[in-house]
Amino acid sequence: MLKDLLFPRGVAVIAGSKKGIELAKVVNRSLKHSYFLGEYSEEVVRQAFKCFDGVILIMSFSGAVRVVCKYSTKKGEDPAVVAVDSSGKFAIPVVNSHWGGNELASLVANSVGGSAILNTQAEEVGIRPLEHLAKLLYAKFEDVGKLAKVYSHVLDGGILCAENFDPPSGFDYVVTRGNCSFTVKLGRGCKEDELCLIPYELFVGVGLKDEARDIEDRVPGILAQYGVPLSRVKGIASIKERAKSVADKLNLPFRLFSVDELNSLDHDCLSPPSDKLREEGIRGVAEASALMMAGKGARLLLRKVKAHDLTVAVAGVVDV
Amino acid sequence: MLKDLLFPRGVAVIAGSKKGIELAKVVNRSLKHSYFLGEYSEEVVRQAFKCFDGVILIMSFSGAVRVVCKYSTKKGEDPAVVAVDSSGKFAIPVVNSHWGGNELASLVANSVGGSAILNTQAEEVGIRPLEHLAKLLYAKFEDVGKLAKVYSHVLDGGILCAENFDPPSGFDYVVTRGNCSFTVKLGRGCKEDELCLIPYELFVGVGLKDEARDIEDRVPGILAQYGVPLSRVKGIASIKERAKSVADKLNLPFRLFSVDELNSLDHDCLSPPSDKLREEGIRGVAEASALMMAGKGARLLLRKVKAHDLTVAVAGVVDV
Questions:
Q1: Min CA distance, A101 vs chain B (Å)?
Q2: What is the dihedral of CA B173, B177, B182, B183, to 10 degrees?
Q3: CB contact (8 A) between residue A61 and residue B93
Q4: Distances from the Cα of A33 to the Cαs of A66, A153, A198, in angstroms?
Q5: What ipTM did this prediction achieve?
Q6: Which domains does chain A have, with CATH numbers?
Q7: C-alpha distance from B47 to closest chain A C-alpha (Å)
Q8: Residue B123, pLDDT score
Q9: What distances in angstroms separate CA A319 from CA A8, A198, A199, A287, one per listed residue?
Q10: Do the Cβ atoms of B119 and A93 come within 8 Å?
Q11: Are B86 and A121 a contacting pair at CB < 8 A?
Q12: Each residue of A93-122: pLDDT tens digit?
């Protein structure tokens, strides 16, 4: 379960060549929240790097390294990239292994019967990497450059204090109170011995079929399942008036969008619409309405989750 | 032996952090023609990428990927880069695995008791990569971009014809005569179904101690040992008049340089001088005189080889 929480924007699977297509399909079927984007092309890779939390490239590592060098931007912005050779023997985190790459390599190796080649220090020492906190808390490091310093503190056996959040499971070296020489803080305004995680302001988009019932309980339930902190949700949006019941229950503002408004949204990372939506001429509901309510600079944070007759997505904004 | 021929400019070993220094020293001691350049710094890495045929980075794979993205230039120019985690568990070719990276990873893994993680197509199919030809023939592909096309031909079971050279051992799919749909040619002026390897013009620098004897036989012997084609050597250079005997034996021009001339050479890739040379105020003899005779645009091709009382180095020039 925790592993899913590292990839709320989903995982893209790309075949480096025709030879890799079969394996790509196998990997895609075995993972939750994965999307087979097809064979390698400039456009496919660019979209994968921009819009997903994980990218699986079915190609040699050194081929994958060339791809990463071409398309990666910077630590914390790029997805975790895993290379799997076309025979499925090895899965290797190519970049951002601390941002979920190690976990993704393990998941893929399990699914194809290969070996995950993990070799980062955090993994050697057996600690959960700090980068996971940013994902789990729906927040962004104010200064990623500070991480190296904090790591050497931790690898020397140091303890970190958590401020304004409860450490998720697996972070034994992060405590809520104690004698710490370094503090990880959910919030702004960090001193030198503090590492700030700036929280995103969150907006939830909801798509509904007419038969959907109990949505005021089910939507918060889905959000909780993906670790979305309800206390940080600033609004609910939809194209269906009925979704207001979710906002009312959570005591939050509600925005109703028209189909035309949603279709006017220009955003690269929207999931492909379902056949039904396409027929109705709608490009997307949950993701589009969340992004639209979040406003300028919004980032898709939780790709749409489908639960039978409803869909939920989360967008967020943050100034760093 | 053949493995050495892939790294005539030597292999640089770099420790990613203090933690990696011990392992870096172990790796360095176990390899022939390796140089421990010290702990990671901009300058050290830049020199390693520019001046060596192989670079071993003692750091996580994803760390090494960041380094490669920053310092690599292009295929065929960069060294083969291998990442070894600081516990020595895995040796992974990061980039240019066909340019010796796979072999280097195997050598390192053997030396530290770890596993080499190899996953390129040529390795899977069990053929020796074409890129080795460029190294073994002291030549440069006219158009590296054509390699992918030739590979798919070979991986489909195709046979290549060799023109103007004898295929070195291990290239069963390259034949000197036969019904080939593609030709690898040592020379210039290639048609569409030909892959050209432009030969370097070679210049040999010789350093001598006073007691060195039989140099007119020993120098050609050393060159042959490193696969340097004597027929392509265009000249011999030294600061010692006695080295002319080598030129005379091979019927080649000889250039005598003064210490001042050699010291005026501005070239990034010279090996550090021996203590004795340093005492005498000489920056280098074999490499410097070879580069100087080769002239403008010369590239160091064989880093100085020491054989008791003499040193030999090769520089080359080519227009591509």
A1: 9
A2: 100
A3: yes
A4: 26, 35, 26
A5: 0.86
A6: 2-119 (3.40.50.11220), 124-199 (3.40.1390.40), 201-317 (3.30.420.180)
A7: 20
A8: 77
A9: 20, 8, 9, 21
A10: no
A11: yes
A12: 999 888 899 999 999 999 999 999 998 877
